[in-house]
Amino acid sequence: MSSRRGGGGGRITDEEINELISKLQALLPESSRSYGASRSSASKLLKETCSYIKSLHREVDNLSDRLSELMSTMDNNSPQAEIIRSLLR
Question: Which family does it belong to (predicted)?
């Protein structure tokens, strides 16, 4: 990566943008990887990324709620409760 991004006022190059787009695509699920490296595709990719991040937040919230419900119905001294606590550490 260019050191210009660190502190200078230099402009990011198209090559750097394309490299960042490729890295971002690699982080998204397979269904989101059909975009090329054009500017309009980059815009679509960024929108898809934002949508994906929002869906991940919802999933984490749902899982957290489910875990809280499960823990509230469980004996705190049970082997199952200890397994769950060990997974959360």
Answer: Belongs to the bHLH protein family.
The pTM of this model reads: 0.65
What is the chain's Cα-based Rg? 21
Asked whether residue 22 is assigned to any structural domain, the reply reads yes
Q: pLDDT for 24-56, tens place per residue? A: 888 888 765 555 555 568 888 889 999 999 999
Please give the residue range of the domain that contains residue 84: 14-88
AA identity, residue 33: R
Q: What gap in Å lies between CA 32 and CA 10, rounded to an integer?
A: 31
Cβ neighbours, 10 Å, residue 48: 19
Spatial separation of the C-alpha atoms in residues 36 and 42, rounded to whole Å: 8
- 26 Cβ contact list (under 8 Å, min separation 6): 33
Reading phi first (left if > 0) and then psi (alpha if -120 to 50, else beta), residue 28 is in beta
Domain annotation covers residue 21:
yes
